[in-house]
Design brief:
Radius of gyration of chain C: 22 Å
Strand content of chain A: 15-25%
Chains: A alpha+beta (540), B mainly alpha (319), C mainly alpha (281)
Order of helices and strands of chain C: HHHHHHHHHHH
CATH topology of the largest domain in chain A: Dipeptide-binding Protein, domain 1
CATH class of the largest domain in chain A: Alpha Beta
Number of strands of chain C: 0
Shape of chain A: globular
Radius of gyration of chain A: 24 Å
Largest interface: B-C, 48 and 45 residues
Helix content of chain C: over 70%
Strand content of chain C: under 5%
Largest sheet of chain A: 7 strands, mixed
CATH architecture of the largest domain in chain A: Alpha-Beta Complex
Low-confidence stretches of chain C: none
CATH class of chain C: Mainly Alpha
Helix content of chain A: 25-40%
CATH architecture of chain C: Orthogonal Bundle
Distance between the termini of chain A: 33 Å
Distance between the termini of chain C: 22 Å
Oligomer: heterotrimer
CATH superfamily of chain C: MetI-like
Number of domains of chain C: 1
Low-confidence stretches of chain A: 1-47
Shape of chain C: elongated
Mean pLDDT of chain A: 84
Amino acid sequence: MRKKIFGIAAVTLLTLVVSACSGNNNNGNTASNGDNTAQASPSASGSSQPKDGGNLIIAVGADPVILNPNYAGDRVSLTIDQSLYAPLFQVNNGVKTFYLADSLTPSADNLTYTLKLKSGLTWHDGQPLTADDVVFTFDKILDEKQNSFFRENLIIGGKPIQVVKVDDTTVDFKLPQVSPAFEATLVQLTPIPKHIFEKEDNIEKSTKNAAPIGSGPFKFKEYKTGEYVTLERFDNYFAGKPHLDSVTYRIAKDTNAANLALQNGEINVKYLDPQDVGTIEATKNFDILPYSEGRLAYLLFNENSDTGVLGKKEVRQAISYALSRDELIATAYSSKDYADPAKSFVTPDGLFHTNDVPSFDNDADKAKQLLEAAGVKNLKLRFIVSSGNKAQEAASLYVQQKLKAVGITVELKNMDASAYGQKFVDPNAKDFELAYAGYIMGYDPDAYSILYKTNSTSNYTHYSNKEVDALFVQGAGEADATKRGEAYVQLQNLIAEDAPIYPVAYTKTIVAVDKRYGGLDEAVLKPVVIFEDLSKIYLK
Amino acid sequence: MRQLIARRLLQAIPLLFVVSVVCFGLVKLAPGDPVLSFVTPNMHAEDIERIRHNLGLDQPAYVQYYHWLMECLSGNLGYSLVNHQPVFDQIVDRIPATAGLMGISIALAILIAIPLGLIAGSNRNRFIDKAINLFAYIGISVPTFWLGILAIYLFAIKLHWLPSMGMRTIGQNSAWDIIKHGILPCAVLTFGFLASYLRYIRSGTISQLKEDYVQIQYAFGSKKSTVLFRHVMKHILLPVITLLGLSIGDLVTGALVTETVFSWPGIGSLGMTAVRGMDYPVILGITIFSALLLVFGNLLADILYGVADPRIKLGEVSS
Amino acid sequence: MNRSKWRNVRNELFSNAFGIAALSILAIFTLAAAFAFLSPMDPNALDITAKLQPPSLHHLFGTDDYGRDYFTRALYGGRVSLMVGFASMILSTGIGATIGIVSGYFGGWIDNLLMRLLEVFLSIPSFLVLLLLSVFLSPSVGNIIVIIAFLMWMNIARIVRAETLSLKTREYVLYARASGQNSFGIILKHILPNLVPVIIVGATNNIASAILMESSLSFLGFGVQPPNATWGSMLNNAQSYVVNSPNLALFPGLLILLTVLSFNILGDILRVGFEPKLGRR
């Protein structure tokens, strides 16, 4: 359970992580682009010719919760599902890559989206994959009894979308009202086979999930709990036979043990903590690939704690002054290679992001003055830490040491990852002031309103500013891009000034891949799921 | 004899009952709301209450206990909060890995401990005895996880002789492969067991050598080795078997730390994951399972002890 | 408790090379832990420019992944480890001895009840319960001591009970009872003094197991709160760096081994010393 790189917060914000899969979408790219049917052209950069055969072993931190894309919300399930179930299409940097779909065309009034499937698609068991499966999948997501958490995404303005089969390869999505976010929803949803699940009362609890039938480049072979999940090549994969014979997701719960296994050649692909990069790099056997997940790591100020002391803006600013962003990055992430200094609450991949905002940083004297002016003496703060999470542990030790210098005592409260997660998201938790966390909110800045609007569901800081609330409303409803941008820039300045959090860094995810494997560029590094399409990876 | 065994078995039932109440109580007292694991950000308060009701978590504790106990007796240990799989199946799944590791370690430990113990006991205070004795002291004093780390460092990282984690190499399904993975954890566990058996056998040998039958054998001109390995061993063997009974109780928790260090997919790892994830049904299931083993292990030790030495009155807790 | 027994123990200790070694190791470790503050370094001071340095004259044990002086951390860690061992020993011995004496002396339903309680405790998988409790009690040194003590008193209780049972039938005890002395007085005057040897032996072994238990717990990440360390929690961290900095794993482990080993050896020597009928080892 040691999800070290990604704060548990990111994991708890289940749907947020999921929406992060969609990453950069709907940025003015007026859909349909049949010419963007980028079937990832054959390797240009690869130095050696792709060979067939071999096995790839990917370390994952836990057992998958459920191998059914309608229900998967955890990192491990999402990662495995990515190979097991082909998506309709994916979006990278605003460009669509079509998988099961051949095209997606909105009508002139933007109320109907027509999805064309490729022809001749099959499931892993040989049955044809048709419009019926797509309609079935959406019906089941919309079915309240089936408990899929994607359901909310298919309700627009209080009404469900309608999904209609036109012919065997064509589906129409009828929206109750215009929704620019619809494509972002669609990109997360993956068809499940109707012929397998149509007789199941409760798909989530169905025993059929134990031997999933998908449409992705690899089909399910074996799952040994606590050990591994093995997938083998699906020869009829629509985008061409995958190079590898099989892919194994090795369940390695202990990061220490997994790192040793990586060095010992028992694992080929693994997430790395920045602290461990040096050790792994020294073996010269691995490509170290850092990539952005659009994640902000920050120090959280809980204004709702029973002492209430962080309700004062000056105290929050003073704490920020007492810290040095650069030092903190060096302590928690080894170097800026893996973490860009952050000042804005919007991540650089987000629309209207600007890092040119007020920042309180690295001025201990100013910190003391502010504390004195605020009349705060002998301040004692409690800092909750998810034990085993290296970035959190490092940050907490650093913060403790730096705040001591300005006369603030920090008590560290290390707790188990799940206890931490529960406390972090509990709106009534009053027994801590500080926490170190991270979030992935995706492309559109409106997503951040749930974090910073007064009394929002995920407003863990309990920050409240009427002006901010108003700007979020304005930004969400503003059609004019320039005006919208102005609103969000103003928002970033306001929030930075109020310091409800101390933004630390836009962190990168680091993946180590054994140098014997090629085709990494074509497979496309992807937030959360590591690779978008494993069929492209080959043994050199 | 049979009567006594039956009586002890009957006595075990109230004991198990109390233990189950204690374990259930402990888990119930734990903070954190199990319902939260079913909650997603979009849910409303009514949804959460409905789930709570469906899970029976809105009932008083004794009612929950009663339902849980009835389910247990019918072989249903509930469902994991994390992956919603039956706890019973998950435990059964992991038994072979743990039982294999522990079984082989215990067997090896006994096989090595008997000759070493006999030699040490019969050469009291000589160099060989002191050497074996120190070895045993280290065995009971060394932190197993540290030994595990050192073993991984030396044999997996530096020498590349053996794998460092798990039970299988991916893609290979041979018995030899599993053995190769098992060598290090097995060696670490064996060392620990060996040490305690060794001390037991050594002191047993010392006291046996004072018995009349030994003197008689010597008087008849038997060789020392014959006396030791034929006669003394016979008298030591049965008490040693009782140790086995006690070891059964250790089966789950005994290997927990070692399984963690070597990522061995046994019940210990399952328990560790459950504790970290606060997966209460799994924790409870494993706790009950190992309590069951403990009670019956102790019982077995008692009975075997009675068989081994009929002078011992059955009914006392063996020590 | 007579004087000759103590003399016997002393002789046993000082005539045994292991005994002398064990005593010296414990003496050194205890002094080192007690005077840890004399170290010129701060055990919790981060220095990211001096990460993972190998042992040198400046850093005797090297530095850890945050650049903290490992030797100083080991000194302070030893303080916590030894304290946990010692305190849980006192507590568990107190509980165990009390229950053992009460059970053995009064017999009857009290004995029956206490022994059933003991059986229940013996039938609870202790390490699992230890983990569970340390998850939901916030893991402070105090809590760890109490939890370990509550899972460790059974052995002493059993030995003390057996010993009390036999002491109870001694003539001086029977006489004291017949002459109407109250039970409390008899226990204090006649029973307890004769129990001292078994209690000391049991207590010594208990320290050893308490230290081992605490280190396992800390190793799994359920121990004391950072930035404080114990030898066990230092090892937890060390595992990630074992390839390049094996010294981080080596030192704390050695310290645990030597300490536990010393207590175990001491316990055995004491037992032999107190029970001359066993003869010299």
